[in-house]
């Protein structure tokens, strides 16, 4: 029986994640903003928080596709803005959606997150 429930997600997903590093076309991206900027926090109710450098945050929604094993994130206006793949207790991978700078499609970017420790 196919289920779109979130029960197969690792419980560790529901915590705050900080950006560990980014890659584009196989090369590490340098100079990424440090936590709390770009921290993500996934909530069980299908919301997520995306933090700014001053600890304020934007909210959006997320949806898990159990066939693809991917979380789709959407802005509050419903526009798809990313996918979270490779869900593990110790790391998640964010693939942004949309256009990036200088004509490089965001789909070539990978941002690797680790659990935020105090």
Automatic annotation (TrEMBL):
Top-level taxon: Bacteria
Protein name: Lipocalin-like domain-containing protein
Protein source organism: Pontimicrobium aquaticum
């Amino acid at each position: 029986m196919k289920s779109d429930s979130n029960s197969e997600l690792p419980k560790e997903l529901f915590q705050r994640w900080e950006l560990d590093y980014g890659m584009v076309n196989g090369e590490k991206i340098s100079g990424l903003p440090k936590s709390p900027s770009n921290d993500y926090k996934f909530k069980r109710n299908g919301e997520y928080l995306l933090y700014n450098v001053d600890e304020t945050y934007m909210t959006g929604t997320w949806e898990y596709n159990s066939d693809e094993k991917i979380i789709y994130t959407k802005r509050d206006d419903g526009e798809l803005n990313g996918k979270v793949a490779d869900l593990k207790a110790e790391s998640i991978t964010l693939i942004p959606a949309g256009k990036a700078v200088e004509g490089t499609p965001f789909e070539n970017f990978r941002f690797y997150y680790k659990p935020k420790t105090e």
